[in-house]
Amino acid sequence: MKRNTIVGIVIALVLLTIAGFYISQIQLGYWIVGQPTPLFIIQNEDSNSHKVDIEIFNSDNESIFKELYTLNQNESKKIPKPQTVTNSESYHTYTFKVTLDNETTNILTEKIDPWTTPVIDLYSPHNRNASGEVIPLDIRVTVV
Hints:
Elements: H1 2-33, E1 40-44, E2 50-57, E3 63-71, E4 76-79, H2 83-86, E5 92-100, E6 104-112, E7 116-122, E8 137-143
Parallel strand pairs: 1-7
Antiparallel strand pairs: 1-4, 2-3, 2-5, 5-6, 7-8
């Protein structure tokens, strides 16, 4: 009876160690850096409202997200990452196709992990062309 108890305890400890190691590998980043950043952020810094069409493609060029947003003046939105991105230990390449007011389109292809976030700026006074004019649509990437 004692031998069976000891074997049971050893098996339980081994299983707990394996499970703990696996969970810690996924969660270690959260403990160090914090919660995952949003899938993307849209910021309208203009005095007018704008329509923004966002489509995201995976590495196989399949559309995995498509949404139309209307942002009022000085409004921003943070769209959360899906579980498939936040639970991943690796980077995935996504293509973000962003169209502003059915006129201007920008495309960004980027490797995204739980702490990498594209930021879509609309009429940001910080984004200017060579002649000093404000660029209507700009996409940049932030990493925690």
